[in-house]
Every structure is written in C-alpha cells, then in structure tokens.
Write a structure and sequence with these properties.
heterodimer, A: mainly alpha, two-stranded antiparallel sheet, elongated, B: alpha+beta, Arc Repressor Mutant, subunit A, 3-stranded antiparallel sheet, globular
Chain lengths: ~350, ~110
C-alpha cells in the first residue's frame, strides 16, 4: 500500500485544503476498487499491481490538475485583454520616461554625451521602468483574478457591439501621392539651399556699415555631414518617385525605406558623437559687441542641438523596430523558421 | 493514426462525456462501478478523467453524493438529482437533434 499512500499524498498536497481530505479519501477508495477488480483480492497488493493501477490513473500532477476547482494560470482569459492594455501603457510610459531622463542627463555641466553612454542609459531606464511596472501589474492582476468572483467579470463578452461602429479599412499599402509630391519639392528645395547657399547661412551686423558673418555652419558640417544628408535626401526623392509610379508600398520599397532609416541612425549617431555643426567663429563675429554672451550662447546652442539629435535618434530607433515588426508580420517571415509538422 | 485525427476524435468524445455520465446515474453508483457500466456499453473513459468529472458535476449541482460505510471500505456514491435530470433531458434533446443533423450532412456527402 506504500505506493498508493504516496500517490494519494502527492495528489492531496497539490489541492486546496478545503477539498483535500475528501478527495484523498475518495481517491484512495477508487484506487482500492481498481486494485480489487484487477487482482480479485482486497489487500496485500504487490508493488507491480499498484504500479499498474497508478499508471492507469496518471501522474499525481495530472490528477491534481483535474481535481482542482479552477485551472492554474496567473491571469485568466477574462482579465487578459485589460492586462495587455495596462502592459502596453507601462511600456509607453517607460519609453517616454527614458527619453526625458536621458535628455535631462545631457543638460548638466558634467554631462556624459557619448552616444553609446546615452543609448545605454536610455535602455536601462526603459528596462527598469518596464520590468518593475510589468511585474507590479502582473501581481495586481493575479490578485484581482483570485478575489473578484467570476460573475463580476463582464468586461468584454457581454458588451453589446454595433457593427456600424466598425472602423473603416485603412489602405495599408497605398501611398498618399500629394504627400509624396510635397516631400519631393521640399527636399529638392532643401538640397538646393544647402548646396548653393549653405556657406551664406549666417548673420549680419552693423558697425556703421553692414557686414555679413561667416556661415553659422561649421566646416565639418560641409565636409562630413552635408554629403550624407544630400545622399539621404536624394535617395528619399528617388524612393518617392518609385512610390509615385507604383502607387503602393511593395517589398522593395519597404526594404529601401528600412535601409534609409538605418542611414538616418548612422547620420544622427555621427552628428551626436562627431564635431559640432556650429561655426564658433561666426558666433564670435556676430556677437563681437557682447563677447561675454558668446560662450553661454554657444554652449546652449550645442546642447540644444545634441538634445534634438538624441530625441531624433531615439525616435528613429523606435520607428525602425516598429517597421521591422510590421515587416515580419505583413510578410509572415516566421513561416520560414516554422518547423515542419510531422505527418 | 494521424495525430491530428486522434486529437479531433478525443475532442469529439470529450463533448459527450457529461451526457454519458448523467445518463448512467439514474441509480446510485460509485466511481469504479460507473466506469465499468460505461465500458460495458462501449464508452471508455479514463479513470483520471471520470472521477474528477463526477466531483465537478456535483459542484455544479447536477449530482448528489453520499459516503457509504456499510461495505468493505468507504465508498462515495453518486446519483443524478432533479436539476441534473432536467439538464439531462435538455442535453438528450440537443444530442438527438445534432445526431439527426449530422446524419443528414454525412449522408449528403456520401451520396455525392
């Protein structure tokens, strides 16, 4: 009887105390019935006989699962949708908080402005907030799942819905031609402005006669960044022309769009970590009358630009992740790695 | 047999368990005797499935049970109650209508 007793004990310890003794007693009785039927005896069962009957009943875990009054899960189907909404809100809040704290950290006088350092800080802040928030939400929902009676759950199932309220289908792959035309015109103008008049983007000052300052944009801007920006704008114009001809997003344009976003990340990374785009000399000339302001203004300008680049970098990274996700979903790329089903 | 087909058959059988059990509890029966009675009539149910099911049906108010202490060992006897009887009638009606409908569907398919 040793194995029978051990089995009954193992099932019982997995059950709520309220029903444990009763289930244990019934289970023992049922096991003995089965043994009696199998052996024709009412006692002195051999180990082999007990093993045979217990195998028929299934493992203690399986048996306890079936006797348990409710399935074992942390958050059940009735709260699950609400739980997902809360988790998404926490992730959004984490993203926002990580951008804000990272930007604030660049403002101090001893600010660490290395691109890698800032990205690492943004990532760890996001993970801290997202993980602790998700953990707390899971705990709260797990408690709610157990304290709110089932009949109180009427969150979605019984809500009357009106088919007329169904949102219109968004043409996912169609392009907005007017938007593309405006973008092409704007980028062409921007390229012309920087290439033809970039060196003249400066200020003017008056000391009896009018003088113009050197360009506010540094030599590094023209030698390092402008070629990249022009390439980016040119490629965007090309892509827009292809889109205008095709009238819709296709696999090729989606890939090229993703690559252009990677180029954006590379350019923004260079802008953050490389030499300044501001020509300090032009500032000195423009503010020759108030030299004490030059350093402060220069510093503010530098920091402002760095914050702008950083925010743009974070947004672009987020966009790339979201586009990759959309890409995988739309083109069902997971089919490639899905194992074949056995026949 | 194909694993998918086997799973579908199990699912199909699972849907009939409650009706099978309720139909055989007009008289009192304890777990093992009920299992044997069902098996004799061609319905095989795992013991690990049948016994917890009896308790669930009792919790739902369709069965009543009592311990019998008059035999060689204590045994819990189950029997259908008034509410269970009413549910059994509804389920039986539904079952007959489903069988008729399925019969028509499958016959049509065979005739094609």
């Amino acid at each position: 009887m040793e194995l029978i007793n051990r089995y009954v004990y193992q099932v019982g310890r997995r059950l709520p105390e309220r029903t444990r003794a009763d289930v244990e007693q019934e289970l023992r009785s049922l096991l003995l019935d089965a043994l009696e039927e199998r052996t024709g005896r009412t006692a002195d069962f051999t180990e082999e006989e007990q093993v045979a009957v217990l195998e028929e009943f299934g493992s203690p875990e399986q048996m306890a699962d079936k006797y348990r009054p409710r399935p074992r899960y942390i958050i059940g189907p009735k709260l699950y949708n609400l739980y997902l909404i809360v988790i998404a809100a926490i992730a959004g809040a984490g993203l926002l908080a990580s951008i804000v704290t990272t930007v604030v950290s660049t403002l101090g006088p001893e600010a660490n402005v290395s691109v890698f350092g800032l990205l690492l800080q943004a990532w760890t802040t996001f993970m801290n907030i997202a993980l602790s928030g998700a953990g707390s939400a899971t705990l709260v929902f797990a408690v709610l799942e157990r304290v709110i009676p089932d009949e109180e759950f009427e969150l979605n199932e019984d809500k009357k819905w009106n088919p007329r309220d169904l949102p219109a289908i968004e043409p996912r792959n169609e392009v907005k031609r007017a938007g593309l035309v405006v973008e092409i015109a704007f980028l062409a103008l921007l390229m012309t402005a920087f290439l033809a008049f970039g060196q003249r983007i400066g200020g003017a000052y008056y000391d009896g006669t009018w003088h113009s300052t050197p360009s506010f944009l540094s030599a590094a801007f023209f030698s390092l960044y402008l070629p990249l920006l022009v390439a980016r704008w040119g490629l965007t114009i090309l892509q827009d022309i292809v889109l205008l001809r095709q009238g819709r997003w296709q696999l090729g344009t989606r890939i090229s769009d993703l690559l252009l976003h990677f180029l954006d990340i590379s350019i923004l990374g260079r802008l953050l970590g490389g030499p300044s785009i501001v020509n300090a000399e032009a500032l000195q000339v423009a503010l020759a009358e108030a030299p004490e302001v030059v350093d402060v203004l220069g510093m503010l300008l530098e920091r402002g630009l760095q914050i702008g680049f950083l925010v743009a970098l974070l947004i672009t990274i987020f966009e790339v992740i979201s586009r990759i996700y959309q890409f995988i979903r739309d083109y069902r790329l997971w089919i490639v790695i899905k194992p074949k089903q056995a026949n | 047999m194909n694993e998918v087909a086997q799973n579908l058959i199990s699912e199909l059988r699972r849907g009939t368990l409650v009706l099978s059990v309720l139909s055989q509890l007009q008289e009192q029966a304890y777990g093992y005797s009920l299992k044997e009675r069902l098996a004799e009539r061609g319905v095989e149910i795992d013991q690990g499935t049948l016994y917890p099911l009896l308790r669930r049906l009792e919790e739902q108010g369709l069965l009543q049970s009592e311990w019998s202490l008059t035999e060689s060992r204590p045994r819990r006897y189950y029997q259908i109650n008034a509410m269970g009887q009413s549910v059994l009638e509804t389920l039986t009606q539904e079952w007959r209508s489903m069988v008729a409908a399925m019969h028509r569907l499958l016959q049509e398919q065979e005739e094609k």
